[in-house]
Structure formats: C-alpha cells, structure tokens
UniProtKB/TrEMBL annotation:
Residues spanning the membrane: 20-43, 55-72, 92-117, 129-152, 185-209, 221-239, 391-412, 424-447, 467-491
GO cellular component, one term: cytochrome complex
Any Pfam family matching the protein: Cyt_bd_oxida_I
Protein's name in the database: Cytochrome d oxidase
Membrane topology: Multi-pass membrane protein
GO BP of this protein: aerobic electron transport chain
Species this chain originates from: Salipiger bermudensis (strain DSM 26914 / JCM 13377 / KCTC 12554 / HTCC2601)
Record keyword Cell inner membrane present: yes
Keywords: Cell inner membrane, Cell membrane, Electron transport, Heme, Iron, Membrane, Metal-binding, Transmembrane, Transmembrane helix, Transport
Signal peptide annotation: none
InterPro entries: Cyt-d_ubiquinol_oxidase_su_1
Molecular function terms from GO: electron transfer activity; heme binding; metal ion binding; oxidoreductase activity, acting on diphenols and related substances as donors, oxygen as acceptor
Length: 537
C-alpha cells in the first residue's frame, strides 16, 4: 500500500474531524449555560433571564445544526476511507457509536425542537426540564464518542480472533469504563464549558463596549465568569489525570510530549521550554523544572518514566515477539480446524504483540521476511513527531492557565465591584474569543497525532487501516469537503454575526417594563444600585 494514499486519507479525516470539532465545544458548553439561565428564570420569574435564555439559545441552535451537518460525514468516512479499520475493529468501535446515535443524539434532537417551539406550549418548569434534557443529550453524545475514541487509545475489553481475523469484544464494561475514555470525557467537556464561557463573556463585553443590552450583558458575564472559572480549573486538574493515565497506557506519547529522549532517574523533571531535535535525539536549550513530570506522570517520587530511546528498544523487542504470533496466525489461516493445539497456544501466548509485527507491512509484504534494518525502521516508526507534540502541548497548557486568570478577573469584578469592568478588559474579552477553539484543536492534535503510527494503539497500524482508493478519488473528495465545509463556515459565521448584531429580540417589551420597575426600586432603595450610575467604565 503506497504511503501517499494513507497520508491523503489521514489528511482528509483530520480536516473533517477538526472542522467538526469547531462546533462541538460550543454546543457542549452553551447547552449547559442556557439551561442554567432558564433555571434562574424559573426560580426568580424575572423576564430578563427568559430573554437571556432565548438569545443564547438561538446561538446554540445555529451551532448545533452546523455541528450535526459536519459530524455525519465523519461516520461515512469510516466505511469509505478506512474500510479495513472498520472490518478489523468494527465490532468494538461501532457499539458506542450506535448507542450514541440511538440514545444520546435522539434525545437531544427530539428535545431541541421542544426547546425552540415549546415556549408557549409548555409550562415554565416543563420547558426548563426540556432545556436540561437537551444539555444532557449533548453531553451524552460526547461521552459515547469519547468512549469509542478512548478505546482506540487504550484497547481494553477486546481480543483478536484468529479464525475471523478481527478484533472482538470480550467485556463491554471494560470498554465503557476504560480509564483513558473517562479521563478524555471529563477533560473534553470541561474544555467545552470553557469555550462557551469565553464566547458568552466576549459577546457580552462587546455589548458593554457598544453601550447596548447592558443588563443582559452584565448578567451573562456573571454567569459565564462563575461557570467558566469552575470549568477552567477542572480542565487543568483533569488534564493532570490524562497525563497520569498516559504514563501507563501510552508511554511513547507521554515521552514524545515531553521530548524525553533518555530515561531519567525518578522523579523526572518537566521541560518547560526547549527545542526538540528528533534527528539528533536531544532537546536544545531545555529549561527543566525538577520533579514535576514525575509527580504528574506517576504520582510518586520513586517511579521512573521511560524515555523515547528505551521505548524504541522495547518496541523492537515487541516486533520480534509479534513475528512469532504472526507466524502462528498464518499457520492457523492455512490449516484452519486442523491446526495443532500447540500452534494456537503459541499464538495466544504472543497475540498481544501481533500489531507490532504488522508495522513491518509498510516495508515488506510478509513480515517474516523482514530484514534487521526493516525491523529497526519499524521500531523507529513508533516514535511520533516530537517537536509538533512538544509545542502543541505547551501552547495548550499556556492557554488553559490564561483562561483561569481571565475568569478569576471577571468573577471578582462581577462579584465585588458592582459589575464595573475596565474598558481594556472588555476589549481583551472580545479579542480572546477564538483562543478556546485553538486550545481545543491543539488538544485533539496531541491526542491523535501522538498515537501515531497506530489507528488502534498497539493493535492496528494506520498504514494498514485505509481503503484501497485511488489518489484521484481522494483528491476529488478532499476538494469537495474543503469547498462544502468552507461554505458551511461562511454560513455559520454569517448567522452568528447576524444574530449577535441583532441582539436579544424576543420578549423585549416585557423585559424593558420589568427593567424600568427594577431600576426604580434600586434608586429609591439606596441610590447605589448597579443601575444608579453607568457601571461600564
């Protein structure tokens, strides 16, 4: 199989997946924020909260529809572009995706209609329940998709059947409670909450700069800052959990992220900055923080974290062991029911390393014919691109800590300074709107690029997973996706900008009348309320 085909297939899936993920974080976060706002409306009966729910709900709806449209194409690619992958692991990978479609997506798709068209048909409490069901459905969708992806990172609860030549599920509960999947889920949804909080914060700050919709903007900032602060702190804490999980499930990915070429004595340091040189196998001008990586990766001061060179040597050993399993597998395929029991016993003893022998198919049709040089090259292939991972991870972490600082600032100003925000901070809030998406995309890049050369870690190499399509087919479909997705992006941005410029437009008379009465009560009470003077400084 020529490498150009695999690379084009990877590029196409990467573009569609990362484009789809532009919509996912905002959907996850806005669904919760909208449900919170409607809950406050039900509890206080203040029309301003109803208006806020409808306004932010409209933006959620636009984003939700575009997210569904872009997500459908990804699932078709599994059968079209990655047919051998679908055949090899479809029994396991397809289960959570099917549950996501039948349970989570149907839940949110059903109730999202009731949310938009049920305002005058349902009671306040019933409509609030609908809002929460939409939010729960959105987050359940993420759960099942991340269970599927987490299995690709850490394939538990399954084993290879030599008679069917496929991976088969042995324990659904192991797949469901896969530690990598659970860590990825909580980390990803928390990142989505941060994304939505920064979005709400930035749009609200824009309204204060423009001196319009000020009451809605101040209340939205208060909700976004409170929710966003909790979410930003969660992202950092749960990111640490992902690092700990990787230390014993994806050691090579962790070593590449840290550009850790040699195994350090415990506890290993964290390289804050440096310039990885993969050809020379060293990191130039590295600035290290003692002990930190050991604490994050192992939660101890005595456990070593293996370096890239040591892990490469282990991979070569596993390739050689995998050749034993491959040879036994070929005997089973040839002799079927007549296979001697000792051959099957040999295969069972070494089956966990079969995927490593498959790495040799990039260089030779029959791995048993591989030369020493080819085995060494296959072992080197297990090292992903170190420099891109190194810098992507550090930029993602830097953005994560910056979100904490932003949310702390706006939370303090909203809570203790009577909603008074310096104008420079409002401009800064508008400017950082794109940054959570950058952090989210970097996170997915680290997760997926760091898994290479595997489609399913340690089980199925990426070079074997792609369909036997022509280069022309891939180039045509890639161009089609780029054109179609560019059109969707223009539509999405146009609709979002249109409705942000339009501002809250529903229940305006009722809200304005309530606001006038509320301002009057504040002025006559002590003259110091947030509406007594202009708090936007």
């Amino acid at each position: 199989m020529e490498i150009g085909l695999v690379e084009l297939s990877r590029l196409q899936f990467a573009l569609t997946a990362m484009y789809h993920f532009l919509f996912v974080p905002l959907t996850l976060g806005l669904s919760i924020l909208v449900a919170i706002m409607e809950t406050v409306y039900v509890m206080t009966n203040r029309p301003i909260w109803r208006q806020m729910t409808k306004f932010w709900g409209t933006l959620f709806g636009i984003n939700f529809v575009l997210g569904v449209a872009t997500g459908i194409t990804m699932e078709f690619q599994f059968g079209m572009n990655w047919s051998y992958y679908s055949h090899y692991v479809g029994d396991i990978f397809g289960a959570p995706l099917a549950i996501e479609g039948l349970m989570a997506f149907f839940l949110e798709a059903t109730f999202v209609g009731l949310f938009f068209f049920g305002w005058d048909k349902l009671s306040k409490v019933a409509h609030c329940i609908v809002a929460w069901l939409v939010a729960i459905g959105s987050n359940f969708s993420a759960l099942w998709i991340l269970i599927a992806n987490g299995w690709m990172q850490n394939p538990v609860g399954a084993e290879f059947n030599p008679d069917t030549m496929r991976m088969e599920m042995t324990s659904f509960f192991e797949v469901l409670f896969n530690e990598v999947a659970q860590a990825k889920f909580v980390h990803t949804v928390s990142a989505g909450y941060v994304t939505a909080s920064v979005f709400v914060l930035g749009v609200s700050a824009l309204y204060l700069i423009q001196d319009r919709h000020k009451d809605l903007a101040r209340r939205s900032i208060a909700v976004a800052a409170s929710f966003g602060l909790a979410a930003a702190l969660s992202v950092v804490v749960l990111g640490d959990e992902s690092g700990y999980s990787a230390s014993h499930t994806q050691k090579m990915k962790l070593a590449a992220i840290e550009a850790m070429w040699e195994t350090h004595e415990a506890p290993a340091p964290f390289t804050a900055i440096g310039f990885p040189d993969q050809e020379a196998r060293e990191t130039h001008y590295a600035i290290e923080i003692p002990w930190v990586m050991g604490l994050i990766g192992t939660r101890s001061l005595t456990t070593e974290i293996p370096g890239i060179n040591e892990l490469e040597a282990r991979s070569e050993e596993m390739i050689r062991e995998g050749l034993i399993a491959y040879d036994a597998l070929m005997t089973i395929r040839e002799q079927r029911d007549a296979t001697p029991p000792e051959v099957r016993e040999t295969f069972e003893a070494h089956s966990d390393t079969l995927g490593y022998a498959m790495l040799l198919k990039r260089y030779v049709d029959d791995p048993r014919d591989a030369t020493e040089d080819q085995i060494a090259m296959a072992a080197e292939d297990t090292i992903p691109g170190v420099a891109p991972l190194f810098w992507a991870f550090r930029l993602m972490v830097a953005l994560g800590f910056s979100f904490i600082a932003v949310m702390v600032f706006f939370f303090i100003r909203a809570s203790f300074y009577r909603m008074r925000f310096p104008r420079w901070s409002l401009y800064a809030a508008v400017a950082i709107i794109p940054t959570p998406w950058i952090a989210a995309e970097l996170g997915w890049f680290v997760a997926e690029f760091g898994r290479q050369p595997w489609t399913v870690d340690g089980v199925l190499p990426t070079a074997l997973s792609a369909s036997h399509l022509s280069i022309a087919d891939l180039l045509i479909t890639l161009a089609g996706f780029l054109i179609f997705y560019s059109m969707l992006f223009v539509i999405e941005m146009g609709l979002m900008v249109k409705y942000i410029r339009k501002g809250p437009f529903q229940d305006v008379p009722e809200t304005e009348a309530w606001q006038a009465r509320h301002e009057h009560r504040l002025r006559t009470h002590d003259g110091q309320g947030p509406f007594a003077t202009n708090p936007a400084e």
